[in-house]
Write a structure and sequence with these properties.
By secondary structure, the chain is an alpha/beta fold. It has three domains: about 15-260, HUPs (Rossmann fold); about 285-405, Four Helix Bundle (Hemerythrin (Met), subunit A) (Up-down Bundle), CATH 1.20.120.640; about 410-460, no CATH class. Helices cover about 45% and strands about 15% of the residues. It has 16 helices and 15 strands. α12 runs antiparallel to α13. The mean pLDDT is about 95. The structure holds zinc ion (ZN). Zinc ion binds near residues 28 and 209.
Length: about 475
């Protein structure tokens, strides 16, 4: 029985989807004006695992992750770069797709772009004005009137007064109260704009997600996710608009992912303490980064450090190492010893997607597998197949084993050069030129490459 921590009730709840065996899930995606950093990667990988596990449990999942391609930061960056907004966002959507592929995330079922939904956003704003929930401010921008929505603050668990006192909202004279948020922003000269009853302008960020999620998934839908920083005000503001306009619940389960921190500070663009996914993948194997991101529970903050990545590398080496030299048939072998690990793995994942515990089950499985190689060879194939099957739910152990050991981001020698040297050594051995063969072996060792000869094959790995 799957249990999910709902940020709205602040407790774990039994997951009951709206339609049996189907899950509708929306995750606030990326504002595309720069490369994504490791904090973004964590959010994407966390929801990728949730998506994969729901499918593994047999749910038909409709996973929507939006792209914010209109925003003040985008406009500013495009002007700085002297390029069109479209050229800028296209470039970074491509970079995002590349990053997500490298991290092994499944493509969402839909990736709507905000700019494709502007007329529908205008319709929503008209509805809110008609209901007395929104107004045109003195400068022509349209605002949501938070005092008119009685449940405002329910997700943040604070009333209006406490929210106003606690948040650093700028006093803008055009607004009635400081927490009122912009729904439609009038465009300035040289800014991109769309027509509306209030003049040429662009939608506010909080409006985008309401429109894209409910049009793609219906209202209510099952799961809405995002980073912890989106809980307030972004998600609170989404609820106010959706429930205010349509007078029915918006979302059943709110899920929020913890930050990646560096020295106990949130990794963020504004603090300039971030590492981009591009940078990190130059130094570390793709799956090592993915493993690192799953090593903490998705709700807890996690520290980014060299030691943590090294730990992820050696842990993943152990998982792959257990599969070395085993030829696995495609036909799955049923086996009770192996099956018991699946039960334990699912218990961990059913408990609010507890990946650290799920990973510890994989390590227990590896210990059993390694022991059985000597003591119970009959179980070995079934255990190895189960290891691969469960790791795949986390998006791990997806590479052929030898490929994994042969890729090394900071190696001193490329794989094709190694293959060429091994071929030279093979000819030397065939000619019984042992001195030459040994020389090649030493040459490889100096570059950190170990070779092993079996019957008539030579395998290699970086040390
Ligand atoms: Zn959003």
């Amino acid at each position: 029985m799957l249990v999910i921590y709902n940020s709205k009730s602040k407790q774990k709840e039994i997951f009951k989807p709206i339609r049996a065996n189907e899950v509708t899930m929306y995750v606030c995606g990326i504002t595309v004006y720069d490369y994504c950093h490791i904090g973004h990667a964590r959010l994407m990988v966390a929801f990728d695992v949730i998506n994969r596990y729901l499918r593994y449990c047999g749910y038909k999942v409709n996973y929507v992750r939006n792209i914010t391609d209109i925003d003040d930061k985008i406009i500013k960056r495009a002007l700085e770069n002297k390029e069109s907004m479209h050229a800028l966002t296209t470039r970074f959507i491509n970079a995002l797709t590349e990053d997500m592929q490298a991290l092994g995330t499944l493509t969402p079922d839909s990736e709507p772009k905000a700019t494709d939904y502007v007329p529908q956003m205008v319709t929503l704003i008209e509805t809110l004005i008609a209901k007395g929930l929104a107004y045109v401010g003195t400068t022509g921008d349209v605002y949501f009137d938070v005092t008119q929505f009685k449940n405002y603050g329910k997700l943040a668990h604070k009333d209006l007064e406490a929210l106003e006192a606690g948040s650093r909202v700028a006093i803008v004279e055009a607004k009635k109260t400081p927490l009122d948020f912009v729904l439609w922003k009038m465009s300035k000269e040289n800014e991109p704009y769309w027509p509306s009853p209030w003049g040429n302008g662009r939608p506010g960020w909080h409006t985008e997600c309401v429109v894209m999620s409910s049009l793609e998934l219906g209202q209510p839908f099952d799961i809405h996710g995002g980073g912890n920083d989106l809980k307030f005000p972004h998600h609170e503001n989404e609820i106010a608009q959706a429930e205010g306009a349509y007078e029915k619940p918006f979302v059943n389960y709110w899920m929020h992912v913890g930050f990646v921190e560096i020295n106990k500070e949130k990794m963020s663009k504004s603090l300039n303490n971030f590492f981009t996914i591009h940078e990190v993948l130059r130094e570390w194997k793709n799956e090592v980064v993915r493993y690192f991101l799953l090593y903490g529970h998705y709700r807890s903050p996690m520290d980014y450090s060299l030691e943590a990545l090294e730990g992820a590398q050696s842990a993943l080496d152990r998982l792959y190492g257990a599969l070395r030299g085993l030829a696995l048939p495609t036909e799955i072998i049923e086996n009770d010893v192996a099956k018991a690990y699946e039960t334990r793995f699912m218990e961990a994942m059913d408990d609010d997607f507890n990946t650290p515990v799920a990973l510890s089950v994989l390590f227990d499985l590896v210990r059993e597998l390694n022991r059985n190689k000597i003591e119970e060879p009959d179980n070995v194939i079934a255990l190895a197949q189960m290891l691969k099957k469960l790791a795949a739910v986390l998006g791990l152990l997806t590479e052929p084993v030898e490929n994994y050991f042969q890729q090394d981001a900071h190696s001193a020698i490329a794989a094709n050069e190694i293959e060429a040297l091994i071929a030279t050594r093979r000819s030397a051995r065939a000619e019984k030129n042992w001195a030459k063969a040994d020389e090649v072996r030493q040459q490889l060792a100096q570059k950190g490459v170990m070779i092993e000869d079996s019957d008539n094959e030579t395998t290699w790995r970086y040390q």
